[in-house]
Amino acid sequence: xxxxxxxxxxxxxxxxxxxxxxxxxxxxxxxxxxxxxxxxxxxxxxxxxxxxxxxxxxxxxxxxxxxxxxxxxxxxxxxxxxxxxxxxxxxxxxxxxxxxxxxxxxxxxxxxxxxxxxxxxxxxxxxxxxxxxxxxxxxxxxxxxxxxxxxxxxxxxxxxxxxxxxxxxxxxxxxxxxxxxxxxxxxxxxxxxxxxxxxxxxxxxxxxxxxxxxxxxxxxxxxxxxxxxxxxxxxxxxxxxxxxxxxxxxxxxxxxxxxxxxxxxxxxxxxxxxxxxxxxxxxxxxxxxxxxxxxxxxxxxxxxxxxxxxxxxxxxxxxxxxxxxxxxxxxxxxxxxxxxxxxxxxxxxxxxxxxxxxxxxxxxxxxxxxxxxxxxxxxxxxxxxxxxxxxxxxxxxxxxxxxxxxxxxxxxxxxxxxxxxxxxxxxxxxxxxxxxxxxxxxxxxxxxxxxxxxxxxxxxxxxxxxxxxxxxxxxxxxxxxxxxxxxxxxxxxxxxxxxxxxxxxxxxxxxxxxxxxxxxxxxxxxxxxxxxxxxxxxxxxxxxxxxxxxxxxxxxxxxxxxxxxxxxxxxxxxxxxxxxxxxxxxxxxxxxxxxxxxxxxxxxxxxxxxxxxxxxxxxxxxxxxxxxxxxxxxxxxxxxxxxxxxxxxxxxxxxxxxxxxxxxxxxxxxxxxxxxxxxxxxxxxxxxxxxxxxxxxxxxxxxxxxxxxxxxxxxxxxxxxxxxxxxxxxxxxxxxxxxxxxxxxxxxxxxxxxxxxxxxxxxxxxxxxxxxxxxxxxxxxxxxxxxxxxxxxxxxxxxxxxxxxxxxxxxxxxxxxxxxxxxxxxxxxxxxxxxxxxxxxxxxxxxxxxxxxxxxxxxxxxxxxxxxxxxxxxxxxxxxxxxxxxxxxxxxxxxxxxxxxxxxxxxxxxxxxxxxxxxxxxxxxxxxxxxxxxxxxxxxxxxxxxxxxxxxxxxxxxxxxxxxxxxxxxxxxxxxxxxxxxxxxxxxxxxxxxxxx
Amino acid sequence: xxxxxxxxxxxxxxxxxxxxxxxxxxxxxxxxxxxxxxxxxxxxxxxxxxxxxxxxxxxxxxxxxxxxxxxxxxxxxxxxxxxxxxxxxxxxxxxxxxxxxxxxxxxxxxxxxxxxxxxxxxxxxxxxxxxxxxxxxxxxxxxxxxxxxxxxxxxxxxxxxxxxxxxxxxxxxxxxxxxxxxxxxxxxxxxxx
Amino acid sequence: xxxxxxxxxxxxxxxxxxxxxxxxxxxxxxxxxxxxxxxxxxxxxxxxxxxxxxxxxxxxxxxxxxxxxxxxxxxxxxxxxxxxxxxxxxxxxxxxxxxxxxxxxxx
Lengths: 997, 193, 107
What we know:
The structure holds 3 protein chains of 3 kinds.
Chain A: E1 16-25, E2 28-34, H1 38-44, E3 51-52, E4 59-60, E5 73-76, E6 83-87, E7 97-101, H2 113-122, H3 139-150, E8 163-176, H4 180-191, E9 196-199, E10 215-216, E11 219-220, H5 221-233, E12 238-241, E13 244-250, E14 254-260, E15 268-282, E16 286-288, E17 301-303, H6 304-314, E18 321-326, H7 331-341, E19 344-350, H8 358-365, E20 370-372, E21 374-380, E22 387-392, E23 405-408, E24 411-415, E25 418-420, H9 423-427, E26 432-435, E27 440-443, E28 450-452, H10 462-479, E29 520-522, E30 527-528, H11 529-537, H12 543-550, H13 563-574, H14 578-581, H15 595-599, H16 616-621, E31 626-629, E32 632-635, H17 645-658, E33 661-664, E34 669-674, H18 678-685, E35 698-704, E36 710-720, E37 723-728, H19 733-747, E38 754-757, E39 762-768, H20 772-779, E40 795-800, E41 803-808, E42 817-823, H21 827-837, E43 844-845, H22 848-857, H23 897-900, E44 905-912, E45 924-926, E46 935-945, E47 950-958, E48 967-971, E49 978-983
Parallel strand pairs in A: 1-7, 8-9, 8-15, 9-12, 15-28, 17-24, 18-19, 18-24, 19-20, 33-43
Antiparallel strand pairs in A: 1-2, 3-4, 5-6, 5-7, 10-11, 13-14, 14-15, 16-25, 21-22, 22-23, 26-27, 29-30, 31-32, 33-39, 34-37, 34-38, 35-36, 36-37, 39-42, 40-41, 41-42, 44-47, 44-49, 45-46, 45-48, 46-47, 48-49
Helix pairs in contact in A: 4-5, 4-10, 6-7, 7-8, 11-13, 17-22
Chain B: E1 11-14, E2 18-25, H1 30-40, E3 51-52, E4 57-62, E5 65-71, H2 72-85, E6 91-95, E7 100-106, H3 110-115, E8 132-137, E9 140-148, E10 151-157, H4 158-173
Antiparallel strand pairs in B: 1-7, 2-5, 2-6, 3-4, 4-5, 7-10, 8-9, 9-10
Chain C: E1 3-6, E2 10-13, E3 18-22, H1 36-44, E4 52-58, E5 66-72, E6 78-82
Antiparallel strand pairs in C: 1-2, 3-4, 4-5, 5-6
């Protein structure tokens, strides 16, 4: 086991050494312990190169220990459950885990050094826009090669079998971050009786306390954290979310949290919390910055804090002989931790001439040499750091260094200072302020109900961090209008006295800055100092533009390490203060979020609601394929004996025309309109003269938007002096009701009308065909159905086959037809009764496709198919529907000059010249057969008419009505334009005799 | 999934033989309101998002709109009586018995299962028994009513009922985030003892 | 996601609402008396201010009421929501066409 984990310390760390876990990296078998992250286990196993860089193919190793990690981007697992691109630092180790480098090609171990050098010169700032844009047609080849070599993660193969879900939550105080400040804020909120949610991205609460040697209330800091967690866990209305990243801060204090629930394959894999918080405490800590020097990307160059974390929390020693390089005091702790853990610290290189404070004295007392006023200007080694080149620091970033001394080492621990994780504060619209002494952006004025605390608020020292967490908690409670329990801040062991950080944004090298390409700012994107300076020279001044030109801050880590250094270098180059250059905009997500957790449970059958009619089970049993119309599933056709759709539809069409068909039309929208002013209201809504309708009469009604365009249509009936029954299209039902209510409530509140949706209450069965009357008579109807006493477009309540119905004599097929509206609870009974009694007429159920063909043969429109929001009733040839007596919505617009043009697209019939091609719907129509002929319209509906024996189509054609008889051409992909003749849009029974019998 | 989490353990059942009436009238018209209440034999709730029980359940839907839930047999008769009593007023009475389905969801974890798809705050301090709300559940619109601390009534349009039932069963089968038995912090979603 | 205070139902998630455009657009009493330009102004032109915007929202998944909202288009902060009144096309006014928010209590 010792051989498997050469860098594991014999003791220490918060890992469970009794639970070894086997895992693999790039096929190599390795071992770690429960409590490890993939990163700590890889380091323990002595793996130092984890991939190659994005552009330059340079070997890269682990730099950080958390969300900031830019290099160790992994592919976890295989097949359908594979997870692309998590950083190894955020993957909890589990038994059997398989990890691969995402950035391996042409292999982590195979070095393409020579190629890299040559290629590197082509890959400077803006390389996407410059180098590969010529010749243009080659870009797709370049892009393929670049992407392959860049090698981001691979998309999982096959649908994800794992489960994800969403959870809505509400709280008084949401605390983001469970380090000292966050725990303190959560404690005071919980003790005050508030509803609290505490989320932390690590699997264990405590943050920096987990790797700290400090004491709180005389106990080890991690014990204090553990006790706080126990107390919170036992408090009413306090929800603890470990392994949960607060990744988005949206409007009105709505935050999104991604919870990683456990290894894949067990229960819910990830959960998305959608939290509405009265107040938010942001305690996400701060991120350590790297230092910028030559070859600062070599494996073995690590953040000093990460070195401490691996030693203290995971019992892993990341190097044997270390150089620590810093411009501030915090890195001395890493040096002390290294020395105590048994590593040799060859030197602490501190740029400050005066060196550090108390911690520095502590390090020196351990015998660690300190080089004040020096810098690391370069490192040796390719696949692993072999030595650091030390130079004197003259306080000038942009000169060159003359001479260096080499110190051999396998680890360079760096600290360039700390940047508060202000991401959520900024996402929420909060302002940032540059602190010239702490050298970082601090959260300033918040725009939403949030308060920042702890290291994320620039309070680095433990005592002030705890006190700041308490203050923030109290502030949040008071803003939420809650009483605050008396809570004192615990006593932290005294923080060491510190000396001030000094600015050190770029270390000079042997060559000048512009000829010195390997000083990395953004490791994930291979953005260097030279790139940023080049962007500035080429005229980019705005930090947002520089970001896009150099790719600084792109990628899965979103520049958590490099952004501030990049802005400082840009500021220096432009000769401006950093505060004036500012930061780029922070947007969700703070860390990458899986598609699975975004979708939640809304996949497969729950992707969108499937609405079904009361007769649906009959359709399913009959084997009807379903057509999705809005959210409804409607039977498309009813195949018999292995028929295909063409055969089934032809049979269904002929059955309706020759004898009897029956269709489930329940999905139509249905509205009861009632009240003293119902008539007046509908006069304004519909284009026809509603007042002329007597009780018991139906009319075809059309509604226009105020712009004069057709919005929706349907049969409406007058059921009483003051009552109407309106129907809408299936897809338009909800929108039409809302639109009518808008007019009623906002424009005409003086009208007394109540609108009530009856869409689901009534089912509608259309009985169509020459034998439809005979069928209803056979069933027994309490009202006479003959032509004289139940005329076309009449409506009557009736008792049919012993069931109460509303009977409409309307027709969407052009045949003698009735529509039966019946309480949905009895609809299936009625349907079965009709099917049984109709046998002698060969009753044929038909679906939406046949319904479409039948209405197209008659030239009836379908709003939303033959219209698209740019079509007026005049364009459709339906001027007869427009009242001359009254105003109605949209009427005035029909007189706008554009609506009066005679070359508007008009609705016409179209017959394919070859007599057999069914033109695809949407086909573009052109005026002549030439190659560059201008488009003059498109096909809106197209079918094969079994009844007529040839295809028919409906189309919108510029000036179409006066071009009847002309030939135009259908542009078909891969074929010569097909001639087609413009004809009137009614193909069958143009006089409309059949429906009147 | 190779292993599945234990389900949340809620009970989902359709309340059978229910009838529904949609009632519209302006409650400022005292005569109309009282005429309706005489027929109903109980007061209509005037506070937003509440319901009253009795022979029928009367749910507030809007400032001039209620849903009356009652026995299926009683509904059509009641609708006729209401229409008759209100014929001289501006009012609308619609029997919508065929258009709605009522589900009862119950169990200690009921509110947590509903919270997976409902944006309302279901904490008992925010949504106590006697309160109701029209809101979203999953991707369907519903009328949600708190019957007692662990029981909710859900009235949904008939065409959405199959989907909603499936959604609820799926949410139940995925379990709940906090399962440590007896731990009181689960009460984030439960009533206080 | 916005949190919108329905004047009747209280604060609810944005997903329960639908947006209805700028408030205070009046339908002309006699559209046919208007010139094409005047009609186009009513039909197409909206103020799109930076700052306070009065707009219509419908509590579509709730009480189906249309109401007015004053929202800051920069901060998205909602200053207030209000019931609509008679024939005002969304002018703030308490009379609410005979229905008031919180008309709840039985008098």
